[in-house]
């Protein structure tokens, strides 16, 4: 089966939606806080079992896969026709959406990894010597925001893919036009 623009766009979109779903479910399953269990000079925080950390990392991994597929889909030589990267960046709209997609991907990664790692640290470092500890969890809202940015990122990669298709057509039209002009010069000589 040959790789096509439709297949790549389906892959990018599907991976982005899966990342979004995992991120939203991770946000909804995250507990508000743990239960403090006082001891002699310390407090042990007991957290209920929840899939927040696993879902957060899954959301992050699917975001990476979606972004990687989105990036590769832009420069892939479809139908065996390669286009130099510089030809894509001649289009200002492609350049803008490419950079926005990169920025959004980076921001989504930050907003997914930060609370996921923080939550993992809270679960593993659950002994506190401050007797007033309220057994915190990761900041609420970051995973959900990261999930929406993950979806936005995949949509921006799809827009960049459409603009790359336009830049690809312009490049091949320009090559064909130059070839016609060369032949016209040779025939007039």
UniProtKB/TrEMBL annotation:
The chain crosses the membrane at residues 53-76, 96-117, 142-164. It is a multi-pass membrane protein. It is found in: Endomembrane system. GO terms for cellular component: endomembrane system. InterPro entries: DEAL/Modifying_wall_lignin1/2 (IPR009606), DESIGUAL (IPR052222). Coiled coil: none annotated. Belongs to the DESIGUAL family. This is Keratin-associated protein. It comes from Cucumis melo var. makuwa (Oriental melon).
